[in-house]
Every structure is written in structure tokens, then in C-alpha cells.
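tool=predict chain=A
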Amino acid sequence: MRNMYFLTILVLFQVISNIQCLSSPIRQFTTYRNATELMKNVADLWWTVDDVDKEITFELHVKTTGWVALGIASTEENSRDADMGIGWINANGQFYFEDRFAHGFVLPVKDSTTQDWFGLQGREENDWTAIQFKRALDTHDTMDFPIRSGINVLLFAYGPVDPNPDITYHEDRRSTHRLSLWKS
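tool=predict ok
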């Protein structure tokens, strides 16, 4: 009985430790195996890797009512040659999501080969935008980078307004992260 009590306390401690680093005040669409805070009090990311279907599902929460983006890059230096998913909720509450690719320091263009990032759902609540999306771990698309075991370079950015007709420059609303997406 004592061992069971200790185990319960240990599990609760691990769950609380994972939760307290996150800042989003809104609930996730589902539960995930992993989470991280991308930008303190501004952006949180949850994800689960599905080894059977060879895909990954992300959920991104950002303190904005504009567009939000997550990308996979070949290098850590910048968004040069980055595979990105960009989403937003319009004024009528409709969710939009696009597969894009950044060629250097210019506006990411819509992926001209195949659409491999798939928007699942999104909402705005309390001045936060939440989007859920997925993609294959390796799409075999020349405008995508494979998501591998080990360290991946993730890019995050957001804008203060919805696209009209396209996304605005993110200015300093961005960050780069080196993450192992197979944490647990």
C-alpha cells in the first residue's frame, strides 16, 4: 500500500511538473504525450508521435487573434528553407490552415507540390488562438523536411492579425527550438 501511495505521488508530481511550464489559459482539444512552452506567456506546443501511422499531431496555442505558424527547418539559423503549417481563425470563427514553404528570407509560399500539413481544428478564446494539425513524419515531398528521431529544428512565428489577403511579417514574434519530438 505504501509503495502504491509513493507511486501515485510520483506520477502526480511528473504531471504537475509538465503542466506548470505552460501558459495557455485554454484547454487542449485532446491529450498529448509531450508539451513545451515555445515563448514564455505567449506560446505553447503539444504533440504526439504515432509510430504506427508514421505521423505526428501538434497543437499550438498562441496569445494572438492573428495567424500562427510552426515549421520544420533544415538549419537552426533562420527560417531559410523551412517547411511550415500556418493557421488562423477568421472574424466569423472559421478555421483556415495552409501548407507553406519558406525559401530564404521571404514570405512563405503555398506548397506547390503536395499539401502535407493537415489542419484538424482551431478556435480563438480569451485572445488566444489554438490550432490542431498533423502531418506524416516523412512526406517524401521536396518542399517538406522529414521529422526524425533525435533533434529537430522547429520554428515558431505569429502575427497580430489574420491574413488579408496574406500573412504579415512576424517581426520579433518568432523563435527557434531544437527539440526531440520523441520525448516519451
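The first strand starts at residue 34 and ends at 39. The chain has one domain: 2-180.
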